[in-house]
C-alpha cells in the first residue's frame, strides 16, 4: 500500500503512536523484501566531510533514535542515515503528549526530550544491522546531567560509538533539554569542543582511522552567535556543520491548533529561517567546512534551495511525515537535474 493511502489512516492516530506504527510497518515490509523493490537505490555520488555518499539526501536524526530500524530505512533511497539522538543512559524523555501535528502548515511541534534506550542498546542494534552504507550517529547529554558536566556525557557516547560511525554529530541545539542550547555560547562551546576534540584525536589514534565530527546548531541564532560559532568550529577543526535543528519561533503557524504547545517547531515553516542561518554559516566558513542543510524540506525545490545556500548534502524528517518516501526520490531527482 502506498504512503498516500496510508497517511489518512496514520493521521487519525496520536502522532507518536503513528510514528511507532510506521516504523513497525517499514520493518515488516523490509523483512518481506518489499522496500528495495518499491524504492531502490538512487545514485548521485557526493562527497561530504570526506565521506563518499551514494546520494546527498539523508535521513535526519530523531526518526530512529535507537538505531532499531536501520536496515528498513536504508531501503527507502537515502544516500546516508543519521540515527539518535542517543545519550549515555536510557531516559524516558518528557511527559506525553509531546508530539503534535499542524497539518495546515505542514509542521510538527515536538518536545520529546531525547527519549532513547541508551548508547549500549543503540550499539547492539547497529551490530545486528546488515546496512553497510554511511551511518551518522547523533549524541547528546542526559537530562539529569548538569550542563556544566555535559562534556562527560558527550565523551562517554563518543568513545562508545566511534568504531560504528561514519560520522558523529554533536547535538547542542535541541530546545527540549533544559539549558542544552547554552552550550552554543562562546565560552561553553569552546570548552566543550576542546574536550571533545581531545578525546576524538585520541580515538582516531587508537583505532587507526578518522571519523569526522559534525556540530548540529539551532536556527534561533543572531549574527553575533553565528560569527562566534563559525570561529569556534574552525579553531577546533570540526569537520561539518548541520544547520539546523527545530525552532522556538511560531512564525507561520500562528492561530493554528497546537501552535502554543511548548517544544521545537519543524516542517515547512522553519525552512526560511533555517536556510537563512545555513547561508550565513556558508558565507563565514567559506568552503573551509562542509555543511548539511536540514529544516523544512518537503519538496525537491526546497532541497535545491539548501544546496544553493551552501549545503553539500541535505537531510529529511518532518517532510517525510507529510510526503512519505516519494519525497526522497523527488529531492534526489531535483538535485540530479541541477547538476
TrEMBL record:
Q: What does the entry comment about cofactor binding? A: Binds 1 FMN per subunit.
Give the EC number(s) under which this enzyme is classified.
1.3.5.2
Residues in Dihydroorotate dehydrogenase catalytic domain copies: 44-336
CDD domains from the UniProt entry: DHOD_2_like
Q: Which domain of life is it from?
A: Bacteria
Q: Do you know which PROSITE patterns this protein is assigned to? A: DHODEHASE_1, DHODEHASE_2
Using the record, list the residue span of the signal peptide; answer none if the entry has no such feature: none
Q: Where does FMN bind?
A: 61-65, 85, 138, 171, 216, 244, 267, 296, 317-318
For this UniProt entry, the molecular function terms from Gene Ontology, in alphabetical order, are: dihydroorotate dehydrogenase (quinone) activity
The pathway to which it is assigned is: Pyrimidine metabolism; UMP biosynthesis via de novo pathway; orotate from (S)-dihydroorotate (quinone route): step 1/1
**Names of required cofactors:** FMN
Q: What is the protein's major site of localization?
A: membrane
Membrane-protein topology: Peripheral membrane protein
Keyword vocabulary terms for this entry: Cell membrane, Flavoprotein, FMN, Membrane, Oxidoreductase, Pyrimidine biosynthesis
Q: Write out the catalytic residues in the record.
A: 174
Which catalysed reactions does the entry list for this protein?
Answer: (S)-dihydroorotate + a quinone = orotate + a quinol
Q: What HAMAP family has UniProt attached to this entry?
A: DHO_dh_type2
Listed PANTHER family: DIHYDROOROTATE DEHYDROGENASE (QUINONE), MITOCHONDRIAL (PTHR48109:SF4), DIHYDROOROTATE DEHYDROGENASE (QUINONE), MITOCHONDRIAL-RELATED (PTHR48109)
What is known about what this protein does?
A: Catalyzes the conversion of dihydroorotate to orotate with quinone as electron acceptor.
UniProt lists the family membership as follows: Belongs to the dihydroorotate dehydrogenase family. Type 2 subfamily.
Name of the molecule in the record = Dihydroorotate dehydrogenase (quinone)
Species lineage:
Bacteria, Pseudomonadati, Pseudomonadota, Gammaproteobacteria, Moraxellales
